[in-house]
Amino acid sequence: MKVLTIxxxxxxxxxxxxxxxxxxxxxxxxxxxxxIHAGAGIDKEAMKRFKDLNLEYPTKKILAKVTIxxxxxxxxxxxxxICNKNPLVYGTKDRDGYAWKLSNxxxxxxxxxxxxxxxxxxxxK
Length: 125
Known about the structure:
By secondary structure, this protein is of the alpha+beta class.
């Protein structure tokens, strides 16, 4: 299955259903299920924003399965609409690139420690 490695806290926010868009500089034509992998990297500034959520932020773990249902080219209006959906999660930052729409969240409990990779990669278990 295809996997996307994401830094914490973003991977956990997706796995908890709080973040339904993943922002990337590159477009994907892939539509379908992917696994969300929490990489070894941590966005320390972002972690401060979410400390009151009392969530666990594991690293090197697959946390969830989602479906990529769309890949939207960001412009000012679309970015603003997404930010307004959840200002805590999305902030107010102007973004370039693409918003990958993630749906059909399924939390997973895979105990394996897994090193991540760039781009979409394959995981076979």
